[in-house]
Write a structure and sequence with these properties.
Length: 967
């Protein structure tokens, strides 16, 4: 509850404040201001390693001078190591502090951004308040916009509040500094880290920041210090200028996005926005976009400047206000805004189901909190929700799409999935079902054990609601202990004769239960559905249509996403056509029933990865053409606490089951193999044994940059390890006269490479010439300047390249620490592109659904690291130089037409020298490639029909109606 501001008592002279001055901006103005902010603080500058050396020198000189003059109690300089967060630096300084007889520890610690300029007496006022109120965990100043051009100053930050969803808002942001609402003392659950004073003893006891939380670290610290109480306050007599209008925005956006997606436990924070607004005598209401906030005179800015446009968007974050803000922004600000909006789903519109669920939640919240006005507004919104959907939501999303907000990869803007669902998700045409009844009956197999009754009912309803009615639902209750479950199942079975039910006497887990359901089925096809997931209304109709159109098909799978209890969908997986190595079958999977029975159904003992094991065993028997992919989201995987959609920690046995499934599959196919964990989720990659008869020729291709350089030691080590595992010869193929001599070779480690004659600068000519000279079964082409990085096992690429079903095997080539080429993917333009170029190793774990951690098919591979069987390159048509830098893709597409695929292996990670030469794609080569392969590339199954290349080299959802246009 806010209150009027009593006089602030003066603190004793024994209270010292340690100031951590942080931030990448020039800190000199903040440092100078600390000299007259009161209390002679002890200032430690946390200096980032990439900041200006000249500014560093002047800042150190200024700090020393202020300390000598007595304006500061002390001055210290703490440089941060490269990659070190300033919060880590603060933790280290605090941990190193120990009291002695002459020097007591400071009473208070102030975290101060270099964008904050404290005004006279600011520190003294904060310290006095903190000393006078022992139950306060921290205090901040009233942060105001800098005074410019005589314009009235406005509030930058008064405090952070939580609405009914527990999303963070800045209270009364932008109101005039002279407004009476700014003069009240208030309590909040969190404070802004840009200017926050806390007690040193409590900070140390709490363990300081947890830097690994990134943007959430300051919020986490406040919640730990405050114990969930409103224990932080803004002191209205302590004034400071804040130049950064974005301060706190990123942390709040990160928190709000996680809340929106159900990743923050409800008890972590408590709604208090309405408490402040009501205590101030204002109305608490909703915008048409269901944004909560105050209603009252003088709160919304009315000017025409950029800051006013920003504040109007902050007060009403909706498409129209965002578009006006973007139009008013200069290039640098525009880029920053769009990047923030793309990064955090809460910043952009959501799918309609989210708003519908939110309105119901707000109405319930208003009832509990006795907010009749808010409840009435929510009820009115619900009555007119269809108008909102068609008149505001969809037009708003279309306007943002047309403005290019989502013109980037799905990984960079998760909210683009919301826009796609509203604007582009394919709808089925009416009357598709064959009138003659030639389409097949499909059995839906559902194992059941103690789901939430509401989730089970929704799963059953999703089958009953199918547009296609030739189905049977075979349910096996795996001895559920919740008495409501068998009652619910019996009720549904009595409603519809197509539902077949068996109750098992004892619990046998999901595999045995699914097999019991399979025993009930007599339909020729069987689809798998978990007891709490949902089928899209068209799922069985789409599946039956594929079966009818492709008589040879034996397994069909679709795209999928996740769904929460409110019916909000997110985290889609848009899959390519079948790729046995990647094996992303997942859901919805529909098998020929006789195939399921032939492989013995699901295997007990692999629970948690039983679906993966089943698809592996089934597809081992099939030609790839017998597997069909439907590029539509037909399956919604339930997201709730305890499900594997949320965290594999919920079911740790998934990890071992997945490893075992993949390892045993490889062994059944005659490979000597061990499975090893990847770095994310239940992903595993295989370590293949080396066949004893396999011989390899390593062709080191040297451009001008390799001339006169010493051999990269790590490359020498990797090649030595390769030679220790298989018979290998080494050849040096120069691409330029300057590179005709190998680098200084350590002959005591490896024999001198065989020097091959120069054949010109064209990579294609050099590879073909080397193939004629080489003696190995497999040729392994490497740029001579490469350095192995991350998980690099070159012999694994050679072993894979010996496979008869593969045309080429490549690795992942990095440059300046980011991905340069991890394999080519097809685009709707008819040209291939290097998927995920520019991605960091950390992002590689999550982008493109983590597929770059696994072996996977590609359209082509990086020419700097490629392996293939020698016999394939002896064909005169191989590596056609007329295709220029796309000669490798031309080669792999020719091989694909003969049934051979191209593979990228996660065991081949290499760093290119920064000055490595790259052959540009000439207009002539591009035209030649398009004429030969343009149509093939456009319709290639490695591109999901809903995706296309984005300007940032990721997969972008197609939101417009002209996917053939070049981005």
């Amino acid at each position: 509850m806010p209150s009027s501001s009593p006089p602030v008592p003066e603190t004793s002279g024994n209270c010292m404040t340690l100031v951590f001055l942080h931030g990448g901006a020039d800190p000199r103005a903040s440092l100078a201001a600390l000299g007259h902010a009161g209390g002679r603080p002890l200032v430690t500058v946390l200096w980032p390693s990439d900041a200006s050396p000249a500014v560093a020198e002047e800042t150190r000189a200024l700090g020393g001078r202020l300390a000598r003059q007595g304006a500061l109690g002390a001055f210290a300089w703490h440089p941060l190591p490269s990659g070190c967060d300033w919060r880590q630096g603060a933790n280290a300084v605090l941990a190193a502090m120990t009291p002695d007889a002459e020097n007591a520890l400071p009473t208070f610690v102030l975290f101060l951004s270099s964008a904050v300029i404290p005004e006279e007496g600011c520190l003294r006022a904060m310290a006095s308040r903190l000393a006078a109120e022992p139950d306060l965990a921290g205090v901040g100043p009233l942060l105001l916009a800098p005074a410019r051009d005589g314009a009235p100053r406005r509030v930058r930050h008064l405090g952070s509040v939580f609405d009914s969803r527990r999303q963070i808002h800045a209270l009364y942001e932008g109101i005039p500094a002279t407004h009476p609402l700014t003069q009240r003392r208030r309590r909040f659950q969190i404070a802004l880290e840009d200017a926050l004073m806390v007690r040193q003893s409590e900070l140390r006891a709490a363990g300081g920041f947890l830097p690994e939380l990134g943007d959430l670290a300051p919020l986490d610290l406040c919640l730990r210090l405050g114990g969930g109480r409103p224990a932080f306050s803004t002191e209205p007599t302590a004034l400071a200028s804040l130049d950064d209008i974005h301060a706190g925005w990123r942390s709040a956006a990160c928190w709000n996005s996680l809340v929106q997606r159900g990743r923050i436990p409800p008890a972590t924070a408590h709604p208090d926005y309405h408490l402040h607004v009501r205590a101030d005598g204002l109305d608490y209401g909703l915008t048409p976009w269901l944004e909560e906030g105050p209603r009252g005179p003088g709160l919304a800015p009315r000017g025409d400047g950029w800051t006013d446009a920003w504040l109007r968007w902050r007060h009403a974050p909706e498409p129209a206000s965002l578009l006006r803000l973007l139009a008013a922004s200069d290039a640098a600000e525009l880029s920053r805004l769009i990047d923030h909006c793309r990064s955090f789903p809460c910043m952009l519109p959501h799918m309609f189901a989210w708003y519908a669920a939110l309105a119901a939640h707000i109405e319930d919240f208003a009832r509990r909190e006795h907010l009749p006005g808010l409840g009435a507004e929510a009820a009115r919104w619900r009555r007119s929700q269809a108008r909102f959907h068609h008149s505001l939501l969809r037009p708003g999303m279309r306007a943002l799409a047309n403005a290019g907000v989502w013109t980037c990869s799905l990984d960079a803007a998760p909210s683009s999935y919301d826009a796609w669902m509203e604007l582009r998700e394919p709808a089925l045409p009416a009357g598709r079902v064959d009138a003659g009844g030639q389409w097949p009956e499909i059995a839906v197999l559902m194992p059941v054990w103690n789901p939430r009754p509401a989730h089970l009912a929704a799963a059953l309803d999703s089958v009953l609601g199918q547009r296609y009615d030739r189905w049977q639902l075979c349910v096996a209750d795996d001895a559920s202990t919740d008495p409501e479950i068998p009652e619910l199942l019996q009720t549904y079975a009595a409603r519809d004769p197509r539902i077949r039910l068996i109750t098992r006497d004892r619990n046998g887990h999901i595999s045995r239960a699914t097999n019991s359901a399979l025993a009930l089925a007599d339909a020729p096809w069987a689809a798998l559905l978990d007891h709490d997931d949902l089928l899209a209304p068209s799922a069985l109709e789409e599946t039956a249509a594929v079966i009818a159109a492709r008589p040879g098909v034996r397994l069909i799978y679709s795209d999928e996403d996740k769904i929460d209890d409110d019916g909000v969908r997110r985290t889609p997986i848009f899959k390519p056509d079948f790729d046995f190595d990647l094996h992303s079958v997942g859901h919805l999977a529909t098998y020929a029933t006789d195939l399921l029975r032939a492989v013995g159904g699901l295997r007990p003992g692999l629970e948690g990865s039983q679906d993966v094991d089943l698809s592996l065993r089934a597809t081992e028997r099939l030609d790839p053409r017998a597997v069909a992919h439907i590029p539509r989201v037909l399956y919604h995987w339930r997201f709730h606490e305890g499900s594997t959609t949320g965290s594999l920690a919920a079911k740790p046995y998934v990890l071992e089951a997945t490893r075992r499934a993949h390892t045993e599959s490889a062994r059944r196919r005659g490979q000597t193999v061990e499975g090893t964990a990847s770095v994310r989720n239940n992903f595993f990659k295989l370590v293949l044994g080396v066949p004893p008869q396999l011989r390899c020729s390593v062709i080191l291709l040297a451009d001008r940059g390799c001339a006169g350089r010493p051999a990269p030691p790590a490359l020498m080590k990797a090649l030595t390890a390769l030679a220790a595992r298989m018979p290998a010869e080494f050849c040096w193929q120069p691409l330029a006269p300057e590179a005709s001599r190998p680098w200084n070779w350590a002959e005591d480690i490896m024999p001198l490479p065989r020097l091959l004659p120069p054949v010109g600068r064209h990579w294609s000519d050099a590879c073909r010439a080397a193939a004629r000279e080489a003696r190995g079964d497999v040729l392994f082409f490497l740029h001579a300047g490469l350095t192995p990085v991350l998980d690099c096992r070159p012999e694994q690429l050679v072993v894979q390249a010996a496979r008869r079903d593969l045309a080429m095997v490549g690795g992942l080539v990095w440059k300046r620490g980011v991905l340069w080429n991890g394999g080519f993917a097809p685009d709707v333009t008819g040209l291939p592109f290097p998927l995920l170029r520019g991605t960091t190793p950390e992002d590689l774990r999550t982008h493109c659904w983590g597929q770059f951690l696994l072996a996977r098919h590609a359209l082509g591979v990086a020419r700097e690291c490629m392996a293939c069987r020698r016999e394939l390159l002896l064909d005169e048509r191989a590596l056609d130089a007329r295709m220029g830098s796309l000669a490798g893709v031309d080669y792999t597409l020719r091989q694909e037409s003969e049934g051979r695929f191209t593979l990228v292996s996660p065991w081949g990670h290499w760093e290119l020298p920064a000055d490595a030469e790259h052959e540009p794609l000439t207009p002539e080569a591009e035209a030649h490639f398009r004429a030969q392969w343009g149509a093939t590339v456009r319709r290639h199954g490695q591109r999901n029909a809903n995706l296309r290349a984005a300007p940032d080299y990721g997969w972008r959802l197609i939101l417009d109606g002209t996917p053939e246009q070049t981005p």
